[in-house]
Structure formats: structure tokens, C-alpha cells
Amino acid sequence: IHSAGLRSKFVHLFLATLHFPHHNQVQLYQEQLQNWIRGNVSACPQSVFIFDEMDKMHLGLIDAIKPFLDYYEEVDGVSYRKAIFIFLSNAGGDLINKAVFDFWTMGKQREEIQLKDLEPMLSVGVFNNKNSGLWHSSLIDKNLIDYFVPFLPLEYKHVKMCVRAEMVARGYAVDEKVVQAVADEMTFFPKEQKIYSDKGCKTVQAKLDIHEDV
């Protein structure tokens, strides 16, 4: 939608620990958030608002945006129907990992998992998780969140794909020995089977830096 991505003046990123640090100022944050959204959607109906670290969000704070997600054509003369709200959270990670592992134990491929297999479980799990930022939130209770999109854990083959992609991005020829070495340095879970990467691909860049120096 906005080709400049996070550099676009119409894409707004909120970090819970940075923008809403004090639990005793929730009411102030709610008012600031509502004013910020009103002003930006008035300027651009397709504004994008990204709330990261939802699992660190103070309880009840996010309910301040309920009027903008509800099924109103307009609020005070402004339509919010085209605005996009994205909530990122680690809450539900254990539920996702268990469900994916259950698929694996049944002999099913990761690629066979569909959104409908996980979405109901995630909705209930996040709603009942006090550390989700959406605990007993009206956004879920009133069915105002359109999709719960799970980020599935990455397998060994996916980590190798990340290494190759990073090498290409740096302008290197892909060296499979280096790909193998970086992937082998990652840690995997469960402890016995070692199927999924503990950190996804987050440390691939740093590990490739070390191999680059060598």
C-alpha cells in the first residue's frame, strides 16, 4: 500500500515499551493514541498502524482504539474503514509450537497447516492470556479482529534458506559449506527431536558476519 514501508509518513509503528512505558499513565496514553489515529486517518484514510510488543502492552490500553475498528461508517465525520491496524505479539507462541509439533507427530507437513487449524485456538488463547495485551479485550470480545495470523516456527531447511538469502543480499556467491556451518550453529527444539529453530532466523546475520570475518 505504501511503497516506502516504515519510512512512509502514513505508516506508524508503536512499541509498547517505548511509547507506553508507565502503567500509571494508561488513561493519558489512551487519549494520545485516539488523537494520533484521528489526525492521521483524517490525512490519509489508508493509514497503517502497527502495534508491536503487544505482550508488553498495559492491560486495557489497546481498547482505546475500539471505536476505530468497530462497524461504524464514520466516527465524528471520519471513516476508518480503510485504515489498517496490525498487532504483533509473542503471546500464543507456545500454543502455535504445540499445534505445529502435533502436526509433525501425525506425519503431516508444515505446509499442510491452514489458518483455520490455528486461528480459533489463538483467538481464545490470546483473549485469556494476561500477558497478551489483549487479555479480555473488547477487540476480541466484539469480534473486531479480522484475522489471527500465526508465525510458524522455522525448520532447519528454512534457516538454510535464510542464510542463502542473506548471502545473496550481500552480493556473495552462495557457498553451501558456509550455509551448512551457519545453520549448524543454530539451536533447535524440542530437545529430543530438534526440529524447529529457537530464534528463527534472527541471528543469521550476526553468525554470517563471523564467518565473513573468518
List keywords for this structure.
mainly alpha, three-stranded parallel sheet, two-stranded antiparallel sheet, 9 helices, 8% strand
Report the principal-axis shape.
globular
The largest sheet is: 3 strands, parallel
Low-confidence stretches: none
Distance between the termini: 41 Å
How much of the polypeptide forms β-strand, as a percent range? Answer: 5-15%
Spatial strand order of the main sheet: 1-2-3
The secondary-structure class comes to: mainly alpha
Give the secondary structure arrangement, pairings included:
Layout: E1 11-15, H1 16-19, H2 26-43, E2 48-52, H3 66-69, E3 84-87, H4 93-105, H5 115-127, H6 138-141, H7 156-169, H8 176-185, E4 188-189, E5 196-197, H9 204-213
Helix pairs in contact: 7-8, 8-9
Describe what you observe in this structure.
This protein has 214 residues and is mainly alpha-helical. The chain folds into two domains: 1-152, no CATH class; 156-213, no CATH class. Helix content is 42%, strand content 8%. A three-stranded parallel sheet has the order 1-2-3. It has a two-stranded antiparallel sheet with strand order 4-5. α7 (156-169) crosses α8 and α8 packs across α9 (204-213). The longest helix has 18 residues, at 26-43.
